[in-house]
Write a structure and sequence with these properties.
Blueprint: H1 2-8, E1 13-16, H2 20-32, E2 39-40, H3 49-59, E3 66-69, H4 74-82, H5 86-89, E4 100-104, E5 119-124
Helix pairs in contact: 3-4
C-alpha cells in the first residue's frame, strides 16, 4: 500500500494518530520515503469524523495532498460522509485496515472541508493490489 501511495499520490502533509498500530503502519511508508515527516496528533486516536476534520483544518496550510492515518470506525465514517459519488465505488460496506480512500477536494480550501461533498477518485484495499 505504501508503494502504491507513493507512486500515485505522494502526500504533502501526513497526519497520524500516535497509536502503536498507526505508527507501525506509517513506518512502512517512511522506510520507502525517508523525507516524509508526519505530524502525530493525539486527537486522531479513535476520533469521530468531526474531530478528524478539525485536526486536518488545524494542521493544513497550502498542501494539495494529505495522508491521514487514523482508526476505524472514524476514518471509514468520515470517508462515507465526504463522498458524493459512492454508488460506483461502494465505500459503505467494507473498509479494512490499511485501506485508502483518495478524494479530490477540487481546491485547497481545507477550512471548509466539513461542509463539502468530495469526489472519491479511488478506493483501494490491500487485497485489491493482488488483482
Amino acid at each position: 500500500m505504501a508503494d502504491f501511495l507513493l507512486k500515485n499520490n505522494k502526500p504533502d502533509l501526513i497526519l497520524s494518530s500516535k497509536s502503536i498500530r498507526t505508527v507501525e503502519t506509517l513506518n512502512y511508508l517512511m522506510d520507502i520515503d525517508k523525507k516524509s515527516r508526519p505530524i502525530y496528533d493525539d486527537s486522531l486516536y479513535l476520533a469521530e469524523p468531526k474531530k478528524i476534520i478539525n485536526c486536518i483544518i488545524k494542521n493544513v496550510n497550502n498542501e494539495n495532498t494529505i495522508l491521514l492515518v487514523a482508526h476505524n470506525p472514524g476514518i471509514h465514517e468520515l470517508s462515507v460522509s465526504l463522498v458524493k459519488n459512492n454508488d460506483e465505488l461502494n465505500l459503505e460496506n467494507d473498509f479494512p485496515s490499511a485501506s485508502m480512500s483518495i478524494f479530490s477536494l477540487g481546491n485547497n480550501e481545507w477550512h471548509d472541508l466539513g461542509n463539502k461533498r468530495l469526489e472519491l477518485i479511488k478506493f483501494i484495499r490491500p487485497r485489491d493490489l493482488n488483482n
